[in-house]
Amino acid sequence: MRREWTFAILISLVSAGILVGSPKPHPSAAETPGRGAPKKLIYYGWGTRDTIYARHHWREMEQMPFDGVGITVAIDRAKPTIGEGATANLLGWNLFGPRAFELNDFRPAIADLKAARWRKFTDNFMVAAIASSGQDHGLTWFDDSRWQIIANNWRVLAAIAREGGCKGIILDPEHYGLDLFRYAEQRRRVDRPFRVYRAMARQRGQELMRAAREVFPDITILCLYGYAVVWNEVRDAQNRGLAKPVEEAQYGLYPPFLDGMLEVSSPRATIVDGYETAYGFKRREQFERGREDILRKAVLLSAVPEHYTRQVQAGFGLWLDYGARWDTREFARNYFQPAEFSAAVRAALEISDRYVWIYSHLPRFFPPENLPDAYLDAIRSGRVIQP
Fold it and tell me: What is the distance of C-alpha 27 from the center of its chain?
């Protein structure tokens, strides 16, 4: 069968356990979460700071209950990197734009990272948001010269990460005004069949990973969501009585893009599905189902399942002020009570392969703002997982 199957058929076959030729289950699948691996709690949200801040405040940053953070890089060090409009000055929000960046221009950022003598924050990441309107400028999947620039920029960010002692890159593929992975929108720019787009997305993923491999072969790419975002969309459509092919999914071109990255990566590289869908999870069984989605089900979207089963890990995201509901005095108004958030952190860490990341809007950690001690204590207690 072609990979344009409708997932009403595919999911039915999976549920029945009779999908012919399906890949073998992931060796660390849902019944055996990665308990042997050290678990890491990462912060990435609206309070993410740049390398300059990290240089001067790493000691204070390490007072927060994390193992690492996302860190941004200023294009112009004299301009702000937080606040309204600041993304225009962030390297990671301009990688897919028309400007080619040079590594030497970011030597000061690398020096910042080296100056931070991290002791506790062992797992820091550079940040890349690749589908924002500010990067559009008529981007298509078929513009070779533009994608040469993108591969160059990806190499620059990967080099900053490696030389600065980071674990890799946080990849945010969300559409912020640029529907990069949505076939219906891209077809309005260049009218080609889905199979042609799928092949091109895979090629571009290969180009980016080759660029990263040159400078950082053992890179970890922490995707805020991975293949499972597409799996969940088509499954949810089926649950509503609809049959949705992958080509109609909002991120239908994302799985082949990740396939391309996987198939040319070093065996030491890792892609983490950060499963943003878990933002509001409170119950352990929700995380267990999420793990199942990532490691047993979403692999069916991959054309390179052998790479997927070896190099894709299950992670989870949690949104502290979920739904932007946040009261620093009357906790009952918040989606998560402190005890609930503590339990969610613990379950997520226990069931993940390695990484869990915490996101927030109003509560900030660097420096602490709108952040009651009860929630800091909740995170600390949640980090104490079962052996």
Answer: 22
Query: What pLDDT, on a 0 to 100 scale, did the predictor assign at position 239?
Result: 81
Q: Which residues contact 112 (CB under 8 A, 6 or more apart)?
A: 51, 52, 54, 55, 164
Angle at alpha carbon of residue 319, lines to 27 and 168, rounded to 5°: 55
Contacts of 18 (CB under 8 A, 6+ apart): none
For residue 192, the tally of other CB atoms under 10 A from its CB is 17
Q: What is the DSSP string of 85-110?
A: TGGGGBGGGSTTSSPPP-GGGGHHHH
Q: Which residues contact 98 (CB under 8 A, 6 or more apart)?
A: 137, 146, 149
Cα 28 from Cα 186, distance rounded (Å): 36
- Taking CA atoms, 169 is separated from 2, 76, 289, in Å, by 33, 20, 26
Rounded distance between C-alpha atoms, residue 236 and residue 225, angstroms: 16
Question: Has this prediction a pTM greater than 0.85?
Answer: yes
Q: Which two tokens stand for residue 55?
A: 């240089």
Give the separation between CA 214 and CA 195, rounded to whole angstroms.
29
Mean pLDDT of 98-120: 99
Nearest to 355 by CA among 119, 169, 92: 169
For residue 268, give Cα distances in angstroms to 22, 74, 194, 306: 25, 29, 32, 14
Q: Which of 31-40, 153-162, 230-239 has the lowest mean pLDDT?
A: 31-40
Which residue shows structure tokens 């990688």? 95
CB within 8 Å of 11: residues ≥ 6 apart: 234, 235, 238
Distance in angstroms (rounded) separating the CA atoms of residues 73 and 65: 23
- 316-333: per-residue pLDDT in tens? 999 999 998 999 999 999
Sequence letter at residue 164: G
Check pLDDT > 50 for residue 235: yes
Cα gap 23→304, rounded to integer Å: 9
Domains and CATH numbers, the chain: 7-381 (3.20.20.150)
Please answer whether residues 294 and 312 qualify as being in contact, where contact means their C-beta atoms are separated by less than 8 angstroms.
yes
Contacts of 200 (CB under 8 A, 6+ apart): 141, 142
Model confidence band, residue 168 (pLDDT cutoffs 50, 70, 90): very high
When computed from its CA atoms, the radius of gyration of the chain, rounded to whole angstroms, is 20
